[in-house]
Amino acid sequence: MAPIDWMALVQSPAIARYDDPPRRRAVARLWSLPLAAFLLLFALLPATAEEVAGGTLNHGIAIHGDVAYPADFSHFAYVDPEAPKGGEVRLAAIGTFDSLNAFLLKGVPAAGLGFLFDTLTTGSYDEPASEYGLLAESIEVPDDRSWVIFTLRDEARWHDGTPVTVEDVIFSFNLLVEKGVPFYRAYYASVAAVEALDERRVKFTFSEGMNRELPVIVGQFPILSKAYYTEQDFTKVSLDPPLGSGPYRVERVDPGRSITYRRDPDYWGKDLPVNRGRYNFDRIQFDYYRDTTVALEAFKAHEYDQRRENSSKFWATSYEGSQFDEGLIVKEEIRHEIPTGMQGFVMNTRNPIFRDRRVREAIAYAFDFEWTNKTLFYGAYTRTKSYFANSELAAAGLPSPAELELLEPYRGKIPDEVFTREYQPPTTDGSGNVRANLRQAAKLLREAGWTVEDGKRVDPETGEPMAIEFLLYRGDPQFERIIGAFRQNLEKLGIEVKLYPVDTAQYQNRVDDFDYDLISATVPESLSPGNEQRDFWSSIAADTPGSRNYIGIKDPVVDALIEKIIAASDREALIAACRALDRVLLWNHYVVLQWHIRHFRVAYWSKFSRPEIRPKYALGFLDTWWVDPAKEAALEGRESLLETE
After folding, report:
1. What integer pLDDT is reported at residue 211 of this predicted model?
2. pTM across the whole model
3. Strands of the sheet with 591-593, listed across from one edge
4. Which of 572, 596, 620 is the last residue of a domain?
5. What range defines the domain where residue 449 resides?
6. Tell me, what CATH number does 434's domain have?
7. Cα angle 355, 389, 307; round to 5
8. Distance between CA atoms of 310 and 19, rounded to whole angstroms?
9. pLDDT tens digits along 42-64
10. How many domains does the chain have?
11. How many distinct helices (H) and strands (E) make up the chain?
12. Could you tell me how far CA 78 lies from the centroid of its own chain?
């Protein structure tokens, strides 16, 4: 699986991508945590290890074979261990915030809260499937992976100087599973027990059944202070800075407008191999803007320092002017190898309109990606054709024998096309003429029982018109132009379409409550999917407010295939199970697949330096780059000169 660049993602949790309106709760909560929610490992094999009674003691664990870094490694290859500490970086977030608790459904959490909390283990950005001890100095596992024991580092400390204890670990796990966002309950559903073995060792025991990634993912949840949350009510929204153990502390909060973090010079873990050369900025500040257009203009006026651009239109037309001509701002595209997962217009099958597969397929025929990409995206994007896009897990061609073995028991319960055809989304010639596609859509709607009366698509039994509401995030006005043509095509089919932009809090609450017809959503995937699939597609998650089963899938076949993914005994079995699930999801037409891109579009004021080696699976801006004093001084001089001209 590919590590996620958490420090880059937390810099603007209100924006998933401008060409993709955010599912803000998932983004804000999961991307603002140090929890590597998507860093899922498929198998656990010993790295450089020492045999101990009952299990194998490891400094790190990998998906296959050894981890890349030995037990005595000094730092990750993609950092500069001599990088200077200091300087300030200012970043932008969109919308507002009213909470410093990122673990609840209530409230809108501030950007960057992941800086405050450490986890038991941490991943590397240049390996697809490796984890190393952070709070834990060692990880002990048996051959059958039925449990894992973490031994805490004796030097681990909270910001108030008190030690991080086994009791904190147990308290955190139980608190997050019982009272945190639903993700934790789904992700750790197979943890049967957590217990203290002694003052430094904590054991997680798993329920029966193969679940090979569990010994790893239980090292990924944020550790919270039992003492702090015994006095503070965890379930209440609060702007009080929580007690953490991570590399930064909250320095200043301007509610709803900005939050500033200061690097802790006494951070207990600063000299660990996994941290050396990282967290180089003395201060990180997030300023909030009402929308993306205002934020872009603020960037060009140097109100903040770095920007990940996700609007193809902005990237093609707005990054110009004297700042760029004179080299004050660097505009750069940086390739990565991160799987792109699924991004699409999601139809909420909790709404009776979308329960018929033919209706969902008809709606997909109304979306003209080729025209949208050429006219609005400047040809920047590739059409997404899989829930596991840009990875070997994506289904292609016809099912393999291994896939057929998984799918055959469900013949007759899943679409016949799963067995006979390779999925391809509807296409056009890009001219904007979609008559052929609309004819096919109209045919499907008629077959589903929807007729046309006075130009309106209606249910003949009730006389009710087919009406769809797009729920939009008001802070992203660029998206309305993207869905404009899609809306027009749907209206040509007689479907009544309403765009409904709402503010951050309302959008968040309505998506949590599944109160929408159609939204744009992204479901990221790693190179080794596992337990998180329950939160994405399972029947239980469909009835759990705040889950990421935005579609509302309640299908025993999907549930069974999820468990096949979780229980996969080797890489080949995992690939087959993921491809089988991919085919079933695709041919049910739950989403209108959108688009993806394989590089970061980054612009930054030229005061930064970065390591020569770039990680494959992250940008690494906030935890591997640094302010270069010479570049910063030169930039200030050139800015002053430009202002006087």
Report:
1. 75
2. 0.80
3. 496-502, 467-473, 518-523, 342-347, 591-593
4. 596
5. 342-596
6. 3.10.105.10
7. 105
8. 6
9. 333 333 445 454 667 789 876 55
10. 2
11. 22, 28
12. 22
